[in-house]
Amino acid sequence: MGASTGAKRRLTPEDIYNITLVSDAQISPDGRHVAYTQTILDKEKNDYRSSIFVVPVDGGTPRRFTSADARDSFPRWSPDGSRIAFLSNRTGKSQVWMISVDGGEATQVTDLPEGVTYFAWSPDGSTLALVSKTEAAQLEKREGDEEDEEKSDVVRITRIRFRADGVSGFLDDKRSHIWCIPAAGGDPWQVTSGDFDDAWPVWSPGGHEIAFVSNRTEDREYNTVSEIWAVPARGGEARPIATGDDAYFGRPVWSVDGAAIAFAGHRQPEAGGAIDSHVWVADGGATRCLTEGLGRTVGDAGINDTFASANPGLAWTPDGWIYFQVSDSGNTHVYRVPAGGGDPSLVVGGQRRVLDFSLSPDGSRIAFVAGDPLNPCDVYVCRADGSDERRLTAVNEEFFSSVALSQPEEFRVPSHADDRAEIHGWVMKPIGFEPGRKYPLVLEIHGGPHGMYANHYFHEFQLLAAQGYVVVYTNPRGSQGYGTEYASYTRAAWGEKDMPDLMAAVDYVIEQGYVDPNRLGVTGGSYGGYMTNWVIGHTDRFNAAVTQRCVSDLYSFFGTSDIGFNFGAYEWGGVPWEVRENYVRLSPITYVENMKTPLLIIHSEEDYRCPIAQAEQLFISLKILGREVEFVRFPNENHNLSRSGKPKHRVERLQFILGWFQRYL
Ligand SMILES: CSCC[C@H](NC=O)C(=O)N[C@@H](C)C(=O)O
Q1: How far is 222 from 196, CA to CA, in rounded Å?
Q2: What are 414-466's pLDDT values in tens digits?
Q3: Where would I find the Peptidase S9 prolyl oligopeptidase catalytic domain in this sequence (predicted)?
């Protein structure tokens, strides 16, 4: 691969329309079928459509269960396996719908004014626990009811968190709470209330209690705590499971006897993704960490541009295993650990990214969605120990058999930093590669900074390879998947401590002899955009750069991003008035006069994670300095343009990137 195209054509930006995404593999209670979500990009409608499919685990053709012109997702089997409940926006808002496994039309279960974001079946199948921002009073007063007085368009803000990327306008004062509703339909009742946001309800095996995630600390407006609580299913006082100012926990799951709850996270909320997450168990006594010696983070830190997210939880089997995802050196795997303590062991491994998984209630089978560098995703099934793995779908087989892809080659190289730490990376040779020729190179830098490039399909990278570029990508210091010390290494040293890692990777690839060192490009998004700006402010070796959803000035980023002030306070060693020098020293804009590389700035106008002013400041400064710079603004898009933006915009974004590199490399 990479040497010749053979009979295959080269990939184009528009090929995102030819890729089907599968996600959220849910194995049926009897372990014989897997339900999943299938998503396509609809060119005509310039939007996404998703449907629920079911495939037999013994093989056979997947069957489409829903076919509305909408987004159906989150399929969940009833405990007796006779029905599948799912979320759908077919009436405008996301509500729960139900379909019988024997077929027929789906029926609507919920009609909550604020919609539903998550739900879970009670163990007896009679009730669904839901998450909604609906307030009880709203059920009396429905849409269309006359307003008492004309509403003002002036926005009064009293809370420190008032904006969220992906939510247009400002956040309202409504809180997410747990509700219940009869699965057959009927009147919903509110289970939790108060000035808290409650999420992720999980029924106890006996059906009497619901565990959930919340922040009920006194200082919740200012901290990033995430606690585990449990509440009687009929409502009442919540009891603490794993709580307190040092809790950063989520994904609760009950033991089969209902005596314990496992969850994932760590005890340093302010650190967020900068340190490893673990699996914990609370059983009334002391909370125990089960993965202390693992040295890798629990969860999926992978980053790519071609996926549909599912966000799986932990699973606890009747024979006492807890299953969880682990990000490890560019792969996301499934591990298990004995709930009573013992060594975690690998169950689903390989050079790939396992995006989500579920276990059959008897703990005998696992269904999962995984992707690799040449295939974004398919549904798989295996036994509880990982044996007898089978692929159940081949959603992109036909398309990918018609296009030439480049197989990434892995490398490990000593950093240019004094410690010569080992840096892990990949290089993709261009399609049609001919030994002896020299090619332009593009360095791709990931965001987070605590994300992880993975062994996973990346449309942007494949496209660059198809257009004749050598593509280099690495997991420099700051990345997840290599342990806490590695991930937190860039604290208060963004750019300073990871640039030597990135340059070591570029130099290593140049040494291989097939790169033209006078035709180097660099690009990245978010923190990758920050690093793109940093790199061109510290070296002139790149001939073209594309900075996407970037940060240029930490001072003005502080307080204007939905990520919250806590992020900057941790990452840069304090708040601006405490460590002013850090904010200036670590801001790429401080080095703007050194930036000579032709720069394309791509930014979404509704990016509330990295507000567009970050791009504007950089653009204006470079214009004043008379540098080669262009600014491409995407209207009505947020921080996730490259992953979930309007399909037409996604194609245009890729065209701009290719166009810039073609012009300057
Ligand atoms: C540079 S500040 C915010 C960066 C952002 N971090 C978390 O949201 C980021 O880098 N995001 C990455 C994952 C991205 O958008 O690709």
Answers
A1: 13
A2: 999 999 999 999 999 999 999 999 999 999 999 999 999 999 999 999 999 99
A3: 456-665
Cα dihedral value 551, 555, 557, 560, nearest 10: -170
Fold of 404-664: Rossmann fold (3.40.50)
Cα–Cα nearest to 553, from 523, 592, 522, 524: 592
Assess whether the C-beta atom of 201 lies below 6 angstroms from ligand 1. Answer: no
The CA distance from 50 to 55, in Å, is 16
Q: Is 563 in the pocket of ligand 1 (CB under 6 A)?
A: yes
Catalytic residue among 226, 526, 556, 604: 526
Instruction: Give the angle 641-443-430 at the CA atoms, nearest 5°.
Output: 95
Check pocket membership of 448 for ligand 1, CB cut-off 6 A: yes
Rounded-to-integer distance, Cα 185 and Cα 183, Å: 5
Please give the pLDDT value at position 1. Answer: 45
> Taking the C-alpha atoms of 442, 446, 452 and 453 in order, what is their torsion angle to the nearest 10 degrees?
-30
Task: Please report, for the chain, the start and end positions of each structural domain, with discontinuous segments joined by +.
Answer: 404-664
Q: Tell me the CA–centroid distance for residue 320 and ligand 1, in Å.
A: 37
Task: Specify whether the CB–CB gap between 53 and 34 falls below 8 A.
Answer: no
Regarding the beta carbon of 303 and ligand 1, being less than 6 Å apart is answered: yes
Active site includes 639? yes
Q: How many CB atoms lie within 10 A of CB 435?
A: 8
Give yes or no: 416 in active site.
no
pTM summary value:
0.97
652 exposed, middle or buried (CB, 10 Å; 0-12, 13-18, 19+)? middle
- pLDDT confidence bin for 5, thresholds 50/70/90: low
d(CA 335, CA 649) in angstroms, rounded, equals 38
List the Cα angle 525/530/531 in 5-degree steps.
90
Nearest atom in ligand 1 to 550's CA: 1
Which residue's CA is the nearest one to ligand 1's atom 8? 448
pLDDT tens across 178-209, in order?
999 999 999 999 999 999 999 999 999 999 99
Q: Can you tell me which atom of ligand 1 is nearest the CA of 447?
A: 10
The total of other beta-carbon atoms located within 10 Å of residue 319's CB is: 12
Please tell me if the CB atom of residue 525 comes closer than 6 angstroms to any atom of ligand 1: yes
- DSSP H or E segment with residue 581: helix 580-585
Which pLDDT belongs to residue 366? 98
